[in-house]
Amino acid sequence: MRELLVAYLKTLSLGTIGVSDELPWAKDGDPLYIKNYKKIYVDRPLITQDSVINTLAGSSIVNQTTAVTAYLTVDAKNQPSNLTQVISDLIAARGEIQTANQHSRTCGVTQEYQGDALVITFDYNFIELLT
Q1: Are 30 and 50 in contact (CB under 8 A)?
Q2: Are the C-beta atoms of residues 73 and 36 closer than 8 Å to each other?
Q3: Apex CA 34: angle with CA 110 and CA 83, to 5°?
Q4: SS3 for 28-59, per residue?
Q5: Cβ distance 64 to 130 under 8 Å?
Q6: 112: part of which helix (H) or strand (E)?
């Protein structure tokens, strides 16, 4: 899922904002997205399963959620002029990443200030029904 998201984000016209192939963390654990402004970093997916239906025969139906987090940091005082459009485009990316059994694709956005930096976090959740 991470690879699909990174590939799609690279097709967008984001102006001065780039998309990194790297994970958002340095070897020492420091977040790269804090050091490198105007660069989108996408983390590894986290996969969880929740049982929907269990049968006496031992089969089951589960919702499998693949959660992927992306980060974008910009200078809080000198934000790119297209930042609102970039945020909208990144939210809309949830609809472009599809697998056969997906029934839900969501994206939550949070923003926080860290010193002079505005860190925008995109939490994508892709839920599919598996038998």
Answers
A1: no
A2: yes
A3: 50
A4: CCCEHHHHCCCEEEECCCEEEEEEEEECCCCC
A5: yes
A6: strand 102-114
Q: Which domains are delineated in the chain?
A: 2-130 (3.30.2000.10)
Residue 59: what pLDDT? Answer: 79
Q: Tell me the two tokens of residue 130.
A: 């598996």
Q: 8-58, pLDDT tens digit by residue?
A: 999 999 999 999 999 999 988 899 999 999 999 999 999 999 988 887 777
* SS3 per-residue string spanning 50-90: EEEEECCCCCEEEEEEEEEEEEEEEECCCCCCCHHHHHHHH
Q: How many residues does the chain have?
A: 131
Q: What is the pTM of this model?
A: 0.91
Do 85 and 92 touch, CB atoms closer than 8 A?
Answer: no
Round the average pLDDT of the chain to a whole number and report it. 93
Rounded Cα gap, residues 79 and 86, in angstroms? 11
Nearest to 31 by CA among 72, 63, 61: 72
